[in-house]
Amino acid sequence: MPTRVTVDVKGEDTHEIDLERLAASGNSGEPISYADLLAEVDLSPHEVSVLVDGRPVPEDQPVEADHVTVLRLIKGG
Amino acid sequence: MTDLRLDATQLERYSRHVIMDEVGPEGQRRLLEGSVLVVGAGGLGSPVIQYLAAAGVGRLGIVDDDVVERSNLQRQIVHGDDDVGRPKVESAADYVRALNPDVDVRAHETRVTSETIDDLVGGTDGERTDGYDVVVDASDNFATRYLCNDYCTLSGIALSHGAIYRFEGQVTTFPNDGDGPCYRCIFPEAPEPGTVPDCATTGVLGVLPGTVGCIQATEVVKYLLGAGELLEGRLLMYDAMGLSFETVDVRRNPDCPVCGDDPEIESIHDVGYEGSCTVSSD
């Protein structure tokens, strides 16, 4: 697991997240997941897709990439 | 630049196309022989319909089950004040007929559902004898968006995707003729209803769908011409407030439920499109 992850929320901000700090602040003992990254930047898995190398990753999987791209699902037409 | 298949009026009308090497009379003929179904005659659909009609796309289908409301007119520029209360497809079709008599415009006042999409896109409608080359997703809901993606992916029909939210837009093109991704490769499932806001609740900058829809129309014209580089494998993000564009590379997902290596979805009838657009349990 990387120690820092860049979360690039397209159309919004880019965040640097310290996974060791995030793990220390939690009490579940579970590995940090992509859903945890989303929670850290105030996004719900319902409204975005998390991509690693151009492909989506399941939000409940442990973080293995040091850079993720977050795309917002938008529906307007 | 004379081409006997373009008459004198057409040569004049399309002269700024024909004069370019990248289009020429052969390219214009391709446009005139092309067929495009625009799903949604709203914010995105309006500029798509206008520019495809002006370009001389020979057969233009328009699907929408809605009527024009006054609150639409700030951005849905194919409709006018006198059209309030009329079916959007009628208003849009009248616009096309007035703009370009070369275009055979077909108005379908219905909703795109798993029961109607094959008739609409595939060409089994009694009115037509063949289907469409391209579908333009200019819809405003996830059920239609995922249905169009699944149908076009499974059928190998090119799909232009566009979506807007407040000041931002997303556009990409799925030619569906090779190893490129589909919409579900990026967004495998639709969100639960009500979890993603729409334009009615958050608002939308009126000119935003104009920009995004014009990009969709550009992609369709290029696709029909067989010219240029399409937005295949690239999701274009547009931010109107920063006036910035960014592309995100996207790849076919081997785990994609519709075009992956072991797809769950082999037919649109496998999917319940009114929820999260996942495989039905029944």
Features:
heterodimer; A: 77 residues; five-stranded mixed sheet; 18% helix; 31% strand; B: 282 residues; eight-stranded mixed sheet; two-stranded antiparallel sheet; 10 helices; globular
CATH top level label of chain A: Alpha Beta
The overall number of domains of chain A is 1
**Would you identify the regions of chain A where 5 or more consecutive residues have pLDDT less than 50?**
none
Give a count of the beta strands of chain A, DSSP E runs of length 2 or more. Answer: 5
Question: Within the largest sheet of chain A, what's the order of strands?
Answer: 2-1-5-3-4
Question: Can you tell me the number of structural domains of chain B?
Answer: 1
Instruction: Spell out the helices and strands of chain A N to C.
Output: EEHHEEE
Distance between the termini of chain B: 59 Å
Measured as a percent range, the helix fraction of chain B is 25-40%
Strand arrangement, major sheet of chain B: 3-2-1-4-5-6-7-8
Query: Over the alpha carbons, how many angstroms does the gyration radius of chain A reach?
Result: 12 Å
Helix fraction of chain A, binned, reads 10-25%
Quick synopsis:
The complex is a heterodimer of chains A (77) and B (282). By secondary structure, chain A is α+β, with helices and mostly antiparallel strands.
Helix/strand layout:
The complex is a heterodimer of chains A (77) and B (282).
Chain A: E1 4-9, E2 14-18, H1 19-25, H2 34-40, E3 48-52, E4 55-56, E5 67-72
Parallel strand pairs in A: 1-5
Antiparallel strand pairs in A: 1-2, 3-4, 3-5
Chain B: H1 8-13, H2 15-18, H3 24-33, E1 35-39, H4 45-55, E2 59-63, H5 88-99, E3 104-108, H6 117-122, E4 134-137, H7 142-155, E5 158-165, E6 168-174, H8 183-186, H9 199-202, H10 208-225, E7 234-239, E8 244-249, E9 271-272, E10 278-279
Helix pairs in contact in B: 4-5, 4-10
